[in-house]
Design goal:
Blueprint (H helix, E strand, L loop, with lengths): L1 H23 L5 E6 L2 E6 L3 E6 L13 E7 L2 E7 H6 L16 E5 L7 E5 L1 E6 L4 E5 L9 E7 L4 E5 L1 H5 L2 H4 L4
Length: 177
């Protein structure tokens, strides 16, 4: 009985929050995250569920950016350290367990058909176009999965990541070292 009441209360809170979001006119386009020294924007339509950090099971003979596999809500997901993959660093940076407290695993949306989660250092929140003062098209030598770069009012640079394009890159799909 208590579970039913808790579920009913949860549904009520969720419905009221959805209604409030509709009436305020706030529209979010991206999930803003930090990974390493960079700020990234993931399109909401490409990002999936967000999980707390859990150490993945290491897989031998893989690239340094591929941390292993993790069981996330009953599904087996490859875990990619976004900061290492994006920078092309030869080795993954060592991070303390206390720093991992803010880390999250952002799964790619199921529609992308890749069981993968990106390790990010910190969730920043939801962002819309109105949160930025300038945008810049990707450079001609930028990776195919880079979208526009945005600048916020404080001068911070945010790189949009096209998760669909990323999930189709041969480098991203080839985890073997």
């Amino acid at each position: 009985m208590a579970n039913r009441d808790a579920l009913r209360a949860f549904q009520s809170r969720l419905a009221s929050r959805l209604q409030a979001a509709r009436t305020t006119g706030v529209s979010a386009s991206w999930l803003a995250v930090e990974a390493g020294e960079s700020n990234y924007l993931f399109p909401l339509g490409h990002a999936g569920e967000i999980f707390p950090w859990m150490p993945p099971q290491p897989v031998p003979y893989t690239e340094p950016w591929f941390l292993g596999v993790a069981n996330l809500r009953g599904g087996l997901y490859g875990v990619v350290q976004l900061s290492t993959f994006a920078s092309g660093a030869a080795s993954a940076p060592v991070v303390s367990e206390t720093a991992r407290a803010q880390s999250r695993l952002v799964a790619l949306n199921e529609m992308l058909e890749v069981n993968c989660a990106l390790l990010i250092d910190r969730l920043v929140g939801l962002r819309g176009v109105d949160a930025f003062v300038a945008s810049q098209a990707p450079a001609s030598d930028a990776p195919a999965w880079h979208g526009h770069a945005y600048t916020d009012a404080a001068g911070g640079r945010w790189q949009e990541i096209n998760l669909q394009a990323l999930s189709q890159q041969p480098q991203f799909l080839s985890i073997g070292a």
